[in-house]
Amino acid sequence: MATRTTSSRSGSSTKRSTASSGSSSRKKSAKPSAAAPEHQLAWPLRAIRGAWMGIGRVVGGAFRQIGSKVQPDYAVRRDGTGLFLVVVALIVASVEWWGLRDVGAYGTWVHNIVAGSIGYMGVLLPLVLLLGAIRLFRHPEQDAVNNRVGIGLTVGIAGGAGMAHAVAGIPTVNDAVEHLWAGGGILGFLLTSPLAGLISRWGALVVMAMLVFLSLMITTATPLKRIPERVRTGYRWLLGQDTAANESASSPADGEHDQSYLYDSEGRKKKRGSKPAKARTSFFGRKGQAEPPVYDVEDAGDGAYDTAVISEGDRARRLDPTQPIDPARDSFRGTADEPSEPAVPPGVKRPTAAEKAMARVKENVGLGSSSSAASASTAAEPDTEALDATAVNRALAEHGPNETQVLPKAGAPLPPIPQRTEQLELAGDVAYTLPQSDFLPAGPPAKERSEANDAVVAALTSTMQQFKVDAEVTGFSRGPTVTRYEIELAPGTKVEKVTALSKNISYAVASSDVRILSPIPGKSAIGIEIPNADKEVVALGDVLRSNAARKTDHPMVMGVGKDVEGGFVVANLAKMPHMLVAGATGAGKSSFVNSMITSILMRATPDEVRMVMVDPKRVELTAYEGVPHLITPIITNPKKAAEALQWVVKEMDTRYDDLANFGFKHIDDFNKAVRAGKVTPPAGSQRVLKAYPYLLVIVDELADLMMVAPRDVEDSIVRITQLARAAGIHLVLATQRPSVDVVTGLIKANVPSRMAFATSSVTDSRVVLDQPGAEKLLGQGDALFLPMGASKPMRVQGAWVTESEIHQVVEHVKGQLQAVYREDVTVEAPKKQIDEDIGDDLEVLLQATELVVTTQFGSTSMLQRKLRVGFAKAGRLMDLLESRGVVGPSEGSKARDVLVKPDDLPGVLAAMKGETPPANEGEVSAQESALVENANANHSGEGQEYASAQEYSHDVLADEENARPEAVDYYDGEDSGSEDAWNLTGR
Ligand SMILES: Nc1ncnc2c1ncn2[C@@H]1O[C@H](COP(=O)(O)OP(=O)(O)OP(=O)(O)O)[C@@H](O)[C@H]1O
Predict the structure, then answer these.
(1) Which of 331, 754, 365, 819 is nearest to 583 (CA)?
(2) How does it sit in the membrane (predicted)?
(3) 482, 532, 591, 777: which to mutate for ligand 1, most atoms within 8 A of CB?
(4) Which of 198, 468, 892, 919 has the fewest Cβ atoms within 10 angstroms?
(5) What CATH class has 839-972?
(6) pLDDT in tens, 918-945
(7) Looking at ligand 1, which residue's alpha carbon is closest to its atom 10?
């Protein structure tokens, strides 16, 4: 609505104030320079100008005292122009109102000009001019509003002149001049005479009347839809009722916010991309209600991550010191029965310097006057200020918190958590219902502003003043744990000046956890995140009932929490596709995992999502034991967990076989086709095709697994993470030890989404996020969320679900269906055929092989050093390597030749483990034959060793052969020998 003022901190000079207000002030700062040629004027002119300005200030001052007093900044005052309008109004009034028309040439000239130009509208002209003068005296900084009002009034004068002319019978210039003047003057003639020719005089009258109507709409910033409401407001105003309260109550209720008349900080009209909230009083409404801005980190179309983040737009809380601090103060989001914001009584304590800085901010976005101020001023200036009050409400509705922050009143029924319309039938014809929404009650209402915030704004402002940094706090957005204060720099002020103050800011706000973002992504502003002295808990129920969650009925959507701007964050686990959750003990990982599992239980049937839970700590996930979504009992034994991961790999392979055989790229497509009956098993197959559920594998402490079987666990994880996305298998790995030996490079490379809770060191933060930051988090659910595809982590406060809530949900779920566990998930995999001569040394032999091949250096002493083994063991390992064709024969003290290239290493390692090498058949054969050749060369004549080398070849190929029937099951139409992929999920 209004441009921001260039006013600076109190008492500052014009120069300073001009320089201090950021981008838009640049525009303003040009104004004084327009007066630059002043010194070039001749002194009489300068004297006249000075006198004029002096009178203007006096008159303007008088106008500013009327009703609610206003004090626009000196730099933006336009008293000279205002005075000019007053003088012209007086001249016109003296002739047209007070009968000076016949008094000599003065009257004649004025009447000729006025009536000759606009006819009868000359009578209204003094009023219009006075109105313009009032605006310029009182609100010179609101350029956009002033322009709009100016345009509206001009259109009105034109329409009125046209109407008068049509009524007067469209006199032409050929008629007597008095006739012309008695109509709409020259303007009226120009507007109506062509129209009258086209659509008759009465047609022209109608068009002109429409022009007058349009002018009213423009002047009062009223879109067509809001006319009844405006009429009501006007009526109430006439009856002396509180228009601001009514307006604010009715404004959201009608749900449609004006899209055309909001202005941004530069005074431009703001284009509203999406419709604002339909009904702020009830965020639980129907689909199709206004949605918050949605930020897709990456287009979901290609299957990449897609998460909805509310409040990505400019939702910074604009500072307004005149507003009383009251968490329930938002009349703009309130209902008619909510108490409206009390008006500030006249004589309220004037804001301090810091508060003045705050006060300007609201004008940047159309909060030119707080609703209280607006309501106070409405009485004084109904025509102009009432508009502002309306705009305030609209702007508040726009810039204020999302309606999802409005919490239901106590006792009000909670809205449902999204459910699919079709309830999927489970085996045994059980109709499964998802848990009721009220199992997860609403949390306490979110605050948008508290005294703590105001204190911090004052501290920041004074710190910058003390250090003479020309910057100001322009707003803040309060999240549950931290508030982000926005700082804008004056032109020519270095960003480093603020960032260098970080320690002083910490000192001023008495918090060591200050995080500076320069800039805030997508904004020309510096963000300073400071913990709230009064933190809030984010209830999972609220997150799941938010618009972002309700937008989708995807079963893998989980409630993540709230971002720094107070917007709800949800994420689709299916599109993450795998996530690492890390943080020091007590930071909130388990709570996050609980929220995730509860979200799934709330939204997904066991038909849609199955889970494997690994909980080596034995206490974190026990609450979920027995839920039908589980495929196997919660695994607490790390060794069994490693086996379960291998089972998941097998399941993944099976799903891939199905995808390949039926010609689909993603399990979703396959499922869709199955549900639509478009996929039929090959002729002769007994198999009944069913959709695959998503499989969510949750490991609550990765470190425990990595201690037991690092290689196997890493192998399985890497294999799952590399491929499982298309198979609908998703991994969530949580750890409190995000060190490189737990979160290895390979795991990291394949787990793209990260959730970092407070870590104990910056090194840990780097391991999780590849950047520092997590070490500064506050714990208790404060986290940095880096979804796949995002370049910068987003700070969120994790959703919180209590044990009793979990219990209720679990009981509901278990009450409907018993868990049917698969037996084979944790069945120990058949022992691989490991050569006898390797015995128990397989692990260390694999390490030795890796070392020798990657360094291409076959030295026994190197093995001794690096593997910390004795000479005898190192020698034995070298012999084993030689027997496997990895290195050549001993050449005395020289290092041995290394016969295997690093590229072939995976195949060689797999062969040593007795596994199928992870390469295609051709490559495997090549590797194997290379090994055989090497071994042959090394041990020609040593029958035993040769046979062993041949065994490799034999084993690998045999393994491949064994694997093949499963893969070709649907090609040859034989069921036997292959396990039905569906069976693997136990259904
Ligand atoms: N999202 C949250 N909102 C509010 N409080 C939380 C949140 N998350 C965690 N907390 C608080 O922090 C405490 C520790 O959380 P949690 O048990 O999840 O930590 P953790 O990282 O899993 O620790 P550990 O690794 O020792 O299990 C909780 O008991 C709770 O009081």
Answers:
(1) 754
(2) Multi-pass membrane protein
(3) 591
(4) 892
(5) mainly alpha
(6) 544 444 444 444 444 444 444 443 333 3
(7) 780
